Amino acid sequence: MSRCSTATSARARTSRITRVCTGCAGRLHAPDVLLLDEPRANLDPAATDLVEPLIGRSSGRTRVVTSHDPAGGLAEADLALGLRDGRAALLGPAAGVSPDEIGALYR
Q1: For the domain with range 3-104, which CATH number is right: 3.40.50.300, 2.60.34.30, 3.30.565.10, 3.30.70.970?
Q2: Does position 4 have pLDDT exceeding 80, yes or no?
Q3: What number of other Cβ atoms are within 10 A of residue 16's Cβ?
Q4: What is the DSSP letter of 93?
């Protein structure tokens, strides 16, 4: 393994550990609202399963989640807000919004 790939691998592990710890800390302090920026990015399936009860829908907390995964975000959202140039370009119940509508915001 080259030095570059070793360093990249170490950064990825650190990122995953940081996300898991952030999820745990959020749960320990019992906030009413969780602000989550790409909470599952770079997590392997085992880590995702570990943090899901802490930050997922079943956590029972209000969650504000940013995601570049339209289908995944909509699947667990109640309300969808899409921004373009810092303004609301899409706002409505997630059940009525398609991943294609979210994807169009990126074009």
Answers
A1: 3.40.50.300
A2: no
A3: 18
A4: E
